[in-house]
């Protein structure tokens, strides 16, 4: 079993800090679950042997909640995200979105990959409108919706450009709005800023938070960076090395916008570092 860290455990108003817990008795109540992961395990075949990628993952993610998954390479973070997206099937267990079993890909879950995955032969506008085109939305409506989302991220002047003409940050903005234009209930993000330089990455993190607060989506975000997870997440889920299991869940009870170098943030950073060190021992 993992430890639930950050839950209300003390009736008093003071923040309690120990070497194993960080919590605040004034934390808001958990939002109603939109996404439910129940007993999910995953086995792969490799060279004739079964490889256990995930073991008994149980997690509920609330409506409009921002949850970050952190853990060592190969711990199954991306595998879990692909199962939520319906791109992979669990060996055991199930995933529910709004009470309905996920059995395959669907428009209620938008996926953003580390690679920009834009079609090089399509303009920015046509890339954003692609999902709506597949769903049979009329050309007039899909282009209007795509333009609206491009305007929201400051890219309306680049609608006729092609991906090779954009910077890395601009490409990732296009990828994000392409996922959002379908109005998904959950946005799934697999290290979307991993290929960006540090300055652009910081800008994109703030941009993502702005979009998330405006569009009110549930976000599950995979990252190797604990700093990114603390800056973005309502909760940070720490996964162990293979087989991937949830070893800890930490509520990040710091008001936004967060100061990346504040004493509060530094305490969470040290807490997560302790967890990750423990996983290596």
Explained architecture:
α2 crosses α3, α2 runs parallel beside α4 and α6 (226-232) packs across α7. This protein starts with a strand and ends with a helix. β2 (15-17) and β3 (22-24) form a beta hairpin. A seven-stranded mixed sheet has the order 1-13-12-6-11-10-9, with helices on both faces. It has a four-stranded antiparallel sheet with strand order 5-4-7-8, covered by helices on one side. The model is unreliable at 1-27 (pLDDT under 50). Helix content is 32%, strand content 27%. It contains seven helices and 13 strands. It is globular and about 55 Å long. It has helices spanning 77-85, 124-134, 139-152, 168-180, 198-215, 226-232, 263-280, and strands at 3-5, 15-17, 22-24, 33-46, 49-62, 66-70, 92-97, 100-101, 109-112, 186-190, 218-222, 235-239, 246-251.
Round the mean pLDDT to the nearest integer and report it: 87
Helix content: 25-40%
Beta content: 25-35%
The class by helix and strand makeup works out as: alpha/beta
The main β sheet shows up as: 7 strands, mixed
What is the general shape?
globular
């Amino acid at each position: 079993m993992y430890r639930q860290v950050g839950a209300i455990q003390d009736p008093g108003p003071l923040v309690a800090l120990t070497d194993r817990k960080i919590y605040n008795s004034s934390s808001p109540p958990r939002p109603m679950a939109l996404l439910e992961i129940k007993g999910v395990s995953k086995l792969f075949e490799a060279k004739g042997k079964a490889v256990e990628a995930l073991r008994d993952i149980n997690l509920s993610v609330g409506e409009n909640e921002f949850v970050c998954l952190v853990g060592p390479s190969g711990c199954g973070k991306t595998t879990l995200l692909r199962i939520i997206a319906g791109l992979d099937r669990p060996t055991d267990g199930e995933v529910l979105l709004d009470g309905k079993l996920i059995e395959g890909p669907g428009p209620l879950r938008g996926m953003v990959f580390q690679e920009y995955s834009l079609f090089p032969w399509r303009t920015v506008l046509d890339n954003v409108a692609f999902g709506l085109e597949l769903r049979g939305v009329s050309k007039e409506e899909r282009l209007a919706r795509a333009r609206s989302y491009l305007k929201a991220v400051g890219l309306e002047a680049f609608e006729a450009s092609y991906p090779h003409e954009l910077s890395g940050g601009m490409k990732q903005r296009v990828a994000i709005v392409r996922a959002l234009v379908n109005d998904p209930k959950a946005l799934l993000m697999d290290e979307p800023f991993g290929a960006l330089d540090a300055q652009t990455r910081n800008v994109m993190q703030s941009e993502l938070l702005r979009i998330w607060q405006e569009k009110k989506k549930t976000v599950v975000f995979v990252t190797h960076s604990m700093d990114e997870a603390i800056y973005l997440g309502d909760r940070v889920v720490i996964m162990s090395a293979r087989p991937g299991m949830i070893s800890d869940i930490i509520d990040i009870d710091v008001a936004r916008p967060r100061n990346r170098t504040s004493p509060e943030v530094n305490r969470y950073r040290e807490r997560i570092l302790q967890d990750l060190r423990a996983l290596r021992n």
